[in-house]
Design goal:
11 helices, about 40% helix, alpha/beta, 6-stranded parallel sheet, 4-stranded parallel sheet, about 350 residues, Rossmann fold, 12 strands
């Protein structure tokens, strides 16, 4: 069987439902393109593994002027601000971005030294063994949101997950008097989820509230999974007055389950999330959450990897602050606010 043909700009245009010239404008950033259209084009590029011809031409000169971006998934509104931030920041610095989406651990990464000068690797997009193999090639790389393990000193850019979770859970306790606070955790192995769980437990301990294992269930950073977990809690008659979801997708699942059960938010049960995703101000009611500086993570990642490419040095750890965003779902009357 012959190898599949590489993706072409025609295929990207067809997948995104736009003209070839529009694809070119998005990739070259030569003319402004409406954000929804640009997002469709970037999604098509990632899904098809399209590599612009300019990257291949640059290889002949020893440098691609391209950054590889390895993602586990893009079917989530969390990724669009990150993807946009990385592509815009790279473009301003004179680099293109080659995106590889790995929807299964068996899928080989489509980025490496053959088409990029440096790699930005999101969370669990590569196993520790794969990180060792990539590092052995000598290509500079930076990790987002999760370190590579104790034996791999790879620069990491992440956020104050524990502090953010501590802030929002403490707000439920101090401002609204909640003591039966359930938690929807993220996927097993997620460093983000781990530290958010630590923040939840630290806030309970600080306020002398005993942790109840029955109040902790899987959210998996997924709306459907979280909806099912909260529905099961309600069906079992579990006593809780608030839900801390480890991400906003999970919080939306909690809102859906509560609405289906006829529970009012925040009058009967308060709900808070984490990330401050673009949809969070528009949920019913608007979602109290923790603002994660996703776009700043992308900007710092690009700055770090380019510095590593051009100067051979990068900071070992960049930790960005999180902020509490108050909306109605926790019980606060203000339409919005920041603490």
């Amino acid at each position: 069987m012959s190898d599949p043909q590489p993706a072409t700009i025609d295929m990207v245009a067809q997948r995104a439902g736009v003209s070839i010239s529009t694809v070119s404008r998005v990739l070259n950033r030569s003319v402004p393109v409406a954000e929804p259209t640009a997002a469709r084009v970037l999604a098509a590029v990632a899904e098809l593994g399209y590599v612009p011809q300019m990257a291949a031409k640059s290889l002949a000169r020893g440098r691609t002027r391209a950054l590889g971006l390895l993602l586990p998934d893009i079917n989530n509104d969390f990724f669009w601000p990150l993807l946009r931030s990385i592509t815009v920041s790279a473009g301003r610095a004179g680099y293109t971005v080659v995106v590889s989406v790995r929807d299964s651990p068996d899928a080989p990464p489509q980025v490496g030294r053959h088409n990029a000068d440096g790699l930005i690797i999101f969370n669990t997009s590569a196993s520790p063994a794969e990180l060792r193999s990539i590092r052995a090639t000598g290509i500079p790389m930076v990790l987002l949101y999760q370190n590579g393990g104790p034996d791999l000193s790879i620069p990491l850019i992440t956020i104050e997950n524990k502090r953010g979770a501590h802030l929002v859970v403490s707000h439920l306790i101090e401002a609204h008097g909640h003591r039966r606070i359930a938690m929807l955790t993220g996927p097993q192995g997620s460093e983000d989820s781990y530290w958010r769980e630590q923040g939840y437990h630290a806030a309970l301990a600080e306020h002398r509230i005993a942790a109840d294992p029955a109040l902790v269930g899987p959210g998996l950073f997924d709306e459907a999974a979280s909806c099912a977990t909260v529905a099961a809690w309600l069906e079992a008659g579990l006593d809780f007055t608030a839900v801390f979801a480890c991400d906003d997708d999970s919080a939306r699942g909690a809102l859906r389950a509560l609405a289906q059960a006829g529970r009012r938010v925040p009058e009967d049960v308060a709900v808070v999330g984490f990330d401050d995703s673009p949809l969070s101000p528009y949920t019913q009611p608007p979602l109290t959450t923790v603002h994660a500086p996703t776009e700043q993570v992308g900007q710092r990642a690009v700055a770090q990897i380019i510095h590593g490419i051009e100067h051979g040095q990068m900071l070992p750890l960049t930790l960005l602050p999180t902020e509490l965003i108050l909306r109605r779902s926790c019980g606060c009357g203000a339409a919005g606010g920041m603490q």
